[in-house]
Every structure is written in C-alpha cells, then in structure tokens.
Specification:
Helix 2 (121-142) runs antiparallel to helix 3 (152-171). By secondary structure, this protein is α+β, with helices and mostly antiparallel strands. The chain contains ten helices and 15 strands.
Length: 371
Amino acid sequence: MYKYVNNNILKKIIYILSVILLLFSCGNSNMYQIEGRLSNLSNASLYVVFETSEGNIIDTVSCNEKGQFSIFREQDDNLLVVTIYYDDREKWFEVYPELGKPVQIKGDAQYPELLQIKGGRINNKLSDFKKKAAPLLKELSNNSDINLGSSPQTANIILELRRIAQGFISANPKEEASAILISKYFANLGEIELQTEELLNMLSPELNDYYIVKYLRTQIGKAKTTMEGAKAPDFNVTNIYGQTFTPDSFANKYYILAFTALWCDMCQTEVMMLDNIASKYSKDSLGIMLISLDDSFNKDTREKIYGDSIEWNLVIDSAGQAITLFETYNVSSLPKCFLMDRDGKIILRTTNGIELQQAVDENLKKMTVDN
C-alpha cells in the first residue's frame, strides 16, 4: 500500500511538473529556450557557451539516457549566439536563439553540420541551406581531414558548398543567415578573400550593424595590409644571434618571411622548399627570415639549427616578438610564407613551398635580366 501511494504521488508530481514546464516554455516571452534530442552521444555532458557582446558565459547541461536536454536562459539583450560543445568538446554546433521562440534540435550527434535546428528566423534560414547542402555536408563530415585543400576531394566539396552558399546569399540579402554563411565558407580559415568583401557588399544595408558583418569588415581592412601588392608592414626583431632586423635590413633585395614552428611537420624548411631556395641564391640577392612560435632557444632547437648546413636567420618568440609579427602579418595558420620585392612590396603569400620556389625563381631571374 505504501509503495502504491508513493508511486501515485510521484506520477502526479511528474505530471504537474511537466504541465508547468510546458506552460513555461510556451508562454514566457522573456526567456531563451533550447530543447534537443541527440542520438549517438559518447557521453551525456554538454558545454554551453553563451556568447555575448560583453563576453562569454559558460554552463554545463546533462542529457538523459535518450539524449534529451533543455536549456533556459533569461533575457539578455547582449546575447549573440549559443555554442554547444559535446563529445569531450570535440564537436559543436551553434544556435541563434530569439526571445520567446523555442528552439528544437534533433539529429545524429556524429553529424553536427546536419543537425536540424528549428525555431527563430536565423535558425530556420540556416536549416533551409543545410537541406540543400545535406549530401555535401555529410560527405565532408565523413572525410576525416576536413581542412580546405587537404585533398582534391575535400577541395571540390568545399568549392561546391561555396557555390550553394553564394546562391543562398544572393537570394537572401536581408538575412543574418547570409552573413553567417559568408563568415563560415568565405572567411572561416583565417584568410579573408577579396570575394568576402564582394559578398558582404551584396547584403542589404540593414545588416551593416550586425555583429558578424561589422567583424568581417574590420578583418577585411586588416587583411588588406598584407595582401599581395601591399607594402610589407614594418617590424623590428632580434634573431637568435642577437642581430636586429627591420625591413630596411633587406633593402634593394628580395626577401622571404617564413612563419613556422619547429614542432610543425608541414613547416620544416625542406617541406617549404626553403633549403633549396637558400642553397640556390646568395644572401646578397635574397634574404630569408624564419619566424618561429617556439618561445625559447633550448637544446633541441640549438642542435637542429646548428646541425643544418644553412645558417638560418631565426627569430623565436622571446618577449613575444614572434607573436607580434604573426599578428602584424595576419598569420593564423602554419606554415605561411611572404615574398617581398626589392621595393618591400608583398608579391606572394603562400602555404605552398613549390609555389614559393617558382615565384622566387621567376622574380630573381627577371632581376638578373634587368641588371
């Protein structure tokens, strides 16, 4: 009897709470409401980041055994986007909530790009794009190496996604979702392209104050300072031998700034063809400076540098000087090489050693002919 009464009371409590929650979620216009059900989660913990114009607020949420979760947050006029991380923060997706408009999320957690996120104008518009691009997004998710250019197949997928995104942007110039797609597919790899600005100019002036549009325009202005044809930004650094270098140190000759790190396999001098270039051209015609993120000239670094037949002009991150150069030259990924002409103008920025060697050969051959 006691057990029976307790069970009945428990059922009534659950029912009442469910009704209250339903009324609460449907009727409270001063709340952000996100509910979801994710299948194939590796664990039940979600890390929720509320990104606001004043900073980020982090919370944790647990899913039940069916992968269901609920997130409620009071009105915050500064809220921009909610990013939800899961599977030990290795995967994530973004939600653009609106006050009083419940957001519903469902789908396979192993395919974050394909999750159905409905509720609110931005989420619904992005869902429309996902629906058109679903086969490509799934193929990209199945590719273990999703960096642009990592393989011909991946590069082709990205190219096709960009084509679909560009069509969406053209058809929806007044939608914030279009700005989000520009950020995701045309400026998401640390490289602001000329096409990024062209696409932004397609958007309605109504979006000029949208935070993503403002951010991208700021980044474009910064990126133009290191685009091909621009005057190379100034610097003043000291190499591992105590020598000070500025752009004037390379006056009247071509020079390369190679952004690297000793722990980066793709950044090694032989991979970037810098060994071949340094061996082929004298320091009188071509200067090369390596800027490494390594923060100390330790034993391993010394052995690697001194064991090389080439005396490298190496700048490490002592006193933050490498980081400063990374920021000045808008370098957000490794490797990255800049080739400057005798007037100090940038004539090439590249991640490809073969492309770098070809440009050096062409320009120094031209210099020889001109002389």
